[in-house]
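stage 2 :: seqdesign
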C-alpha cells in the first residue's frame, strides 16, 4: 500500500473512531427520555411494546462501526476502538460528576435541580451501560471473526447479523437488569423494554446489512482489498 493510501486509511479509521465514541457517549447521556418507536400503543399480557429509550437511536451505529472495523481493519483495531469508547464514557461521567457538584448561579438557565434531574442518574446508568456494552461489543467482535474465519471471508451478511443479534440481546438484557437493580427503571417496565429493545435493535441490524455491504465494497475497491483481506495501519 502506498503512503498516500495508508494515510487515507488512517484518516478514515480516526473518523470512524470519532463517530463511534460520540454515538456511545451521547446514548449514555440521553437515555432517560423514552418514546414509541412504532406508532402503535400495543400491550400484550400487561406488557407495553415499542417503548424504548432515545439512547438506543445512536447505539446501533456503534455496532455497525465495529463490524466495519472488524472487516476492514481487523479484530485488534476494533477492540482498541471499543476500549477507547469505554474510556471516553467514564471520562464524560467524571465531568458530569464535577458539574453536578458545582453550584449554579442565580441567573443560570439550567439550575441545580434541573441538572440533577437530567444527569443525576448518569453515574449508575453509565456504569450499567458500560458493563453491558463491554460484554456485548467483545462478544460482537469475537462472533464476527468466528464466522469470518469459518466462512473464509465470504457471506458477509451471515457474520454481520449473527454477531449483532447475539451481542444486542446480551447488551439489552444486561443493561436492563442492572438499571432495574439500581432502581433507575421500575421492574414493571423490564419485559416491555427488553422485548421492545431487542426487536428494535434486530430491525436496525437487518437494515444496516446493505449499508455494511456498501461500505465494505467501497473499502475493497478503494484500497484494492481481496475478500477477507484487512488493512494494516499505524505500523502493525
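stage 2 :: out
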Amino acid at each position: 500500500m502506498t503512503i498516500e493510501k495508508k494515510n487515507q486509511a488512517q484518516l478514515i479509521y480516526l473518523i470512524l473512531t470519532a463517530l463511534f465514541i460520540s454515538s456511545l457517549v451521547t446514548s449514555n447521556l440521553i437515555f432517560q427520555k423514552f418514546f414509541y418507536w412504532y406508532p402503535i400503543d400495543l400491550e400484550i399480557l400487561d406488557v407495553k411494546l415499542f417503548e424504548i429509550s432515545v439512547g438506543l437511536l445512536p447505539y446501533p451505529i456503534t455496532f455497525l462501526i465495529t463490524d466495519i472495523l472488524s472487516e476492514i481493519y481487523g479484530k485488534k483495531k476494533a477492540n482498541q476502538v471499543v476500549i477507547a469508547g469505554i474510556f471516553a464514557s467514564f471520562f464524560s461521567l467524571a465531568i458530569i460528576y464535577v458539574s453536578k457538584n458545582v453550584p449554579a448561579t442565580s441567573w443560570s438557565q439550567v439550575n441545580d435541580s434541573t441538572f440533577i434531574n437530567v444527569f443525576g442518574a448518569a453515574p449508575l446508568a453509565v456504569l450499567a451501560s458500560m458493563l453491558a456494552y463491554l460484554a456485548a461489543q467483545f462478544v460482537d467482535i469475537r462472533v464476527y471473526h468466528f464466522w469470518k474465519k469459518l466462512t473464509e471471508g465470504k457471506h458477509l451478511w451471515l457474520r454481520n447479523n449473527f454477531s449483532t443479534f447475539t451481542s444486542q440481546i446480551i447488551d439489552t438484557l444486561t443493561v436492563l437488569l442492572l438499571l432495574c437493580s439500581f432502581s433507575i427503571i421500575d421492574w414493571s417496565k423490564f419485559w416491555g423494554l427488553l422485548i421492545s429493545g431487542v426487536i428494535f435493535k434486530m430491525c436496525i441490524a437487518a437494515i444496516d446489512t446493505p449499508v455494511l455491504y456498501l461500505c465494505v465494497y467501497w473499502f475493497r475497491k478503494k484500497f484494492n482489498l481481496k475478500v477477507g483481506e484487512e488493512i494494516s495501519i499505524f505500523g502493525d
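stage 3 :: structure notes
- The chain has a mean pLDDT of 82.
- The helical segments are 3-29, 59-72, 75-100, 112-119, 122-150, 156-181, 190-223.
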